[in-house]
Structures are given as C-alpha cells and as structure tokens.
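Hallway conversation turned thread

IA: we were arguing at lunch whether anyone had actually written out Histidinol-phosphate aminotransferase end to end. Turns out nobody had. So, for the record, here is the sequence (341 residues) and right after it the structure tokens. Reply here if something looks off.
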Amino acid sequence: MFELEKIVRPNIQSLKAYSSARDEFKGEAEVYLDANENPFGTLNRYPDPQQKSIKEKLSEIKEINTNQIFVGNGSDEVIDLAFRIFCEPGKDKALTFSPTYGMYDVSAGINDVELIKQPLLADFQINLNQLQPYLEMDEVKLIFICSPNNPTGNIINKEDIEYILENFKGVVIIDEAYIDFSTKESLVAEIKNYPNLIVSQTFSKAWGLAGARVGIAYASSKIIDLYSKVKAPYNVSSLNQNAVLVSLNNQTKFEIEKNIILIEREKVITQLSQLPMVKTIYPTEANFVLVEVEKVNELYKDLVKKKIITRNRNSVINNCLRITIGSPEENQKLINALQEL
Ligand SMILES: *Cc1c(COP(=O)(O)O)cnc(C)c1O
C-alpha cells in the first residue's frame, strides 16, 4: 500500500511554501506596486509563478486537471525535486536500470542519495526477479524508469511498469522525454490509477525547445502540491513560458517536424544497415538510434574529424554509438561520411 505521507521527507511535509504577491492576489489589476519591479520595459515584470496559461493548454491537450501538472526548468528540475522531496540525504536510496539517462546519477549524487543501478536484460527490459527485494526495502524511495530509454531507444514493457507501481511502496518516475516519437501510448492517463506515479515529459525533444528549458511532471494533485512547494518561486522565465505557449498553439508545426524526423529515422536505419562497419541496429522508439559498430572509438574520432559529432556510448554498451536523427541534410552528411570511411 502506497502512503504518500510515509514517503515524503518530514521537513518537506511541514514546509510552508514561499508566497509571492502574485500568489496571494488573483485576477487582473490596473496598478501593480507589490513586487518592487521597475515600471518600465517589457521584461520588467516577474513571470507567472504558477505557469497558468501553459497548464491550461496542457490540460486541454492531455485531458488532465491543471492541478495534476507541474512545469519545471527542464526535466532536470523534475528529477532534482523528486530527490529533494522524497529522499533524506545520506540515508535514503533511489533505483534505476542501466544503461540509462545519466542525470539520475548526477542528481542523486548532488542530493547525497545512493542510486542503485540494476542492469537491464539483454533485450533492455527490466529483470523483475532481480528487482523484487528492492521493492520491499524501506530506504528505497524512488525508482526511475526511462521509457523510451536513453540510450537504448526501446519502450519498457507496460506490464512490468504496472507490476512495479503495484508492488513498490515508494514513488515511480517514468521519464517519457521521447514518448512523442513512439508508437506506444504515454502512461499519463495512468496517474488517476496510481497515486505513486509521476510521468515526466519535456519540451526539449519533439517540441524543439531544448533552449527554453521547460519540462513537465504529471502526477496526483498531492504530489504536484509538493513539487510546487519546493520549486523556486519563479522557476520558468516569461520568455520560456511564452516560447512554450507559441509552440502549444501551433501543433501543426510539431506534427510536421515529428513526422519528418520519423521518416528520416527509417531512412537512416536503412542506409546504416547497408554499411559494412555496422553490426547491429537496435530497434528504436525515439529520435535516435543505437548502433553497434566495429572499432567504435576510432569511428567516433573519424567522424569528429569530418566535423560530425555523435555520442560514443562505448563506456556503457560495448562498441555502441548513439546517433541522433537530424535534418535530411545532416543525415545525408553522416551517411556520406560513413560511406567514405
Ligand atoms: C533529453 C532528455 C531529457 C530532457 O531533459 P530536459 O532537462 O527537459 O532538457 C529528459 N530525460 C531524458 C531521458 C532525456 O534523454
């Protein structure tokens, strides 16, 4: 049985959030003399601390209540706040499945929380038998599941995630940074069934706004209240909120770009499969592809010499390169370079 009060750090449970003037006053006024702002200019006002316009738009699109949405300074903030809300430094633990996104480890380290890393199986799925004892450990407060997983590209089986949600007393964070590129459905709709589920998404990938630093968490309103309490008051700037609103109001652009990337992905995979140095192309549900090649370190350096940067993942998966799907021109340059090598 999941009981949120037992999982939250006591100091966070009893914390009173910073309340700005714009939190206490709601509506439109004529004269704002409450926040010591400069009256002149265009960026002179503090941004909306609750990001109401973004939440209303997302609420429409995702069919989720606005009080079940957190808007953060990138997914990085969603990850970091999870540690700060649920894990007592030097005492509690978190768990993830390797190989996966490196930020869980960095964020755990910053927060002085041990991150247990369980190897994924050969097909990059979760080993539930091996996980079982950890589900029952009181110190393990968080489980991070990246799906589609970075750098492997696969979706994690939904039945396995549901098993974990049902049998773990702590909080499960599903990182869906790449979900827009997948044929499988997001788990966002499951937040109504699982009080211990956080689904994290981002504007950095399919939405094309990595420079704006905006990430989202969907969860029960109780978890979202904790996030809102712990976040910095003005965690998303006006410029960044506006950039997201412009994108959300032009979903056609999003669909067109996403479809180009998906078509390019299949093209790149076909062309890679014809190259002699390519040994394995792993199935992908993301905007990148993990490729096993011969002599990855040399190949990586040869590509750098041709001014093409890929991600050498040899340190986490032997002989593997992670290649992002770029524009048609960029992808062609990559393929040409590989053909020359
Ligand atoms: C790129 C990526 C993110 C995005 O992080 P932001 O801070 O939102 O830019 C999140 N999770 C994973 C697994 C990623 O690969």
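OS: looked through it. The chain has two domains: 4-249, 252-340.
IA: good, adding that to the notes. The radius of gyration is 22 Å.
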